[in-house]
Amino acid sequence: MTEPTTASYCHAVRAGKLDPMHTLYHDTEYGFPLLEDHLLFERLVLEINQAGLSWSTILKKKDHFRVAFDGFDLPTVAAYTAEDVERLMKDAGIIRNRLKIEATIENARRILVLQQEHGSFRAWLDHHHPRSKAEWVRLFKGTFRFTGGEIVGEFLMSTGYLPGAHHPDCPVYGKVLELSPPWTAGL
Description:
By secondary structure, the chain is mainly α. 63% of the residues lie in helices and 0% in strands.
């Protein structure tokens, strides 16, 4: 997310300074633990596609991403061919960046391998938790394509593996804590 820092993001949402789509995302998704692999995959893809763009752009296109990538069904996306890449390159409803599209397909394939080895993408994440952000970044760079420090940090924070999605004074902070995201283990 290239918009405000965590504290200012919470404040900006509460103050009504951002588009209402941010309020919905902030209040119901950001920092909440995700349990299903296709949802984790979706968030990873959205974070990758945000690189160089605003989070507002991604939120506006999020629903179309789901359609374009078959609901983020991992076996389906992993089986995409060169024809699918060309179809996606023509789809104005998503980010038409060949590197990001190809990374999405390859990352689906890699997650399928992780599922075979660990039972699920989530189990793989849980197996490696806790780690520092720097350790996570090294792990992701060695496992996935198109995953730099900002992408990995936001993916992990937005899915509950790293703290910081919400300021402690934010009303959503308590809701997230009630769900016991992985970063709260040991608190």
